[in-house]
Amino acid sequence: MQRTIDYIKDKIKDFKPEIGIVLGSGLGELADEYGDIRIAYKDIPDFPVSTVAGHNGNLVFADINGKKVVMMQGRFHFYEGHSMATVTYPIKVMKKLGVENLILTNAAGGVNPYFKPSSLMIIKDHINFMGTNPLIGPNDDSLGVRFPDMSEVYTKSLRKIAYTSAEKLNIPVERGVYIALTGPTYETPAEVNMVRTLGADAVGMSTVPEAIVASWMGMKVLGISCICNSAAGISTVGLSHEEVLENAEKAKGNFKKLVLEIINRL
Ligand code: HPA
User: Does pTM surpass 0.85?
Assistant: First the structure.
């Protein structure tokens, strides 16, 4: 970790990021438009490298309207075969760089039948259904406690800022519970029924590990899902990664505007 931090600090000098953003599938464009310093994951010592199409691998530092932001253009998924420690490593790096507010974004399937494809959902809570937990193992007491409280992972004040921002911009947003499964398979219709019964509004394959670790370390967390498709069985057609990226493309205008407004208000 020290080697990672030393390398990044040498590149960014006195730039101290206060806001971290993890950009999900098809939502990486923000880091193309803004970005004063760009570091490829592959150049960072001990940093993982992502393998999925649609996920670039860059750590991008930008001054956005006077706010110092670090963006992850591309994240690491459990289904890639990475360990939970690897998936959440960048979040620890962000914390060590000084990030206090973390915005996690993702592409998700809509489980709530009222959600339309290409809409945005503010995550109010999550269900960890990945069958493991990123905090399993010896606890690093310097970062957080052994048995962390998870009663407000997605910080209420940040959710409020998100709703106020959406209202100001006239962008309709949903709110709901995100459930994470490991993937890489999309769900069967029976599994979508199951997660709906469990109380989920959206289903995806990311975000929860990062949110758990960030919350454990005392970061404020905001989660935004792009509802890129109706989950299997809710829609009558089969799912494809291409459809997901296509709908992320449609949502990204609103997504970018919303995130920029939220950054302004943080
Ligand atoms: N299921 C799981 N993950 C997803 C989906 C989905 O329908 N869409 C985008 N990511």
Answer: yes
